[in-house]
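ENTRY TYPE: paired fold submission
RECORD: A
CONTENT: sequence, then structure tokens
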Amino acid sequence: MRALAALLLLATVPAQAASLTVKTGETWAFILRNGHPIGAHKVETSAKPATGQIVVSVRPLMGTTMVMTNNSPVAYTFRAELLQGGKAVTARPCTLPAHGRPIFEQWQQKADAVRLSGFKRASADGLC
């Protein structure tokens, strides 16, 4: 029974590592490896991303507001889910541009947090 429990625990680790959940009021910095956020850590609201780093802030403004800045030479598309009361609602974010240009997302729904995952290389033009 213990072996089965340990195996189930290990099976959930990649799924958890494949996303980053940013609670409303927090700012996090991270880098991407194979489309997954790694090395995520809280930073000050005024933090600027180091080379190759992404910084994301989530605020309770006009529903839920997210600002994300990517200081790498690669633009990305990604998945965003608004989390409220244990339920996840898929949000529609714009492409995250490269070279330190930010995106500003605003969703009418109030969320406790935003879960980010599925980062994929995008065209330099980007879509919204």
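RECORD: B
CONTENT: sequence, then structure tokens
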Amino acid sequence: MNFTDNYIEMCINNVNIQNLCRHNKGDWFWNGEKPYLYCKSGLGSSNPHDYKWLPTLEDLIWMIDKDIEESNLEDFMMWCRLFVTPENIKENALEYIMEVHYSKEWNPEKKEWEETNGS
């Protein structure tokens, strides 16, 4: 699985997303050095909560799809046309989730999520 450095920062500094993690087998986590796949043998730690969840594109699409309403579908499609780039699609999807559901945007200079003004 390919995770950019920026995407890793966006995930590990994101309490909202980390709270959605269910620690399922097949999930990807960051151990502070590199991504790890959670499988039958575990993460190499007695507590998987020591790691930060790295949602896959499938996880992100599920987050978008589970809450999207028919009336918001056009807004979502317009947002995709304006902002999504194939090389950063996970970052783009995470930014959409955070903007729409949590009114937060990523500040790449500070490497943190900031509250938006609701605009």
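NOTES ON RECORD B: The chain has five helices and five strands. The helical segments are 5-12, 15-18, 57-67, 73-83, 89-102.
STATUS: closed
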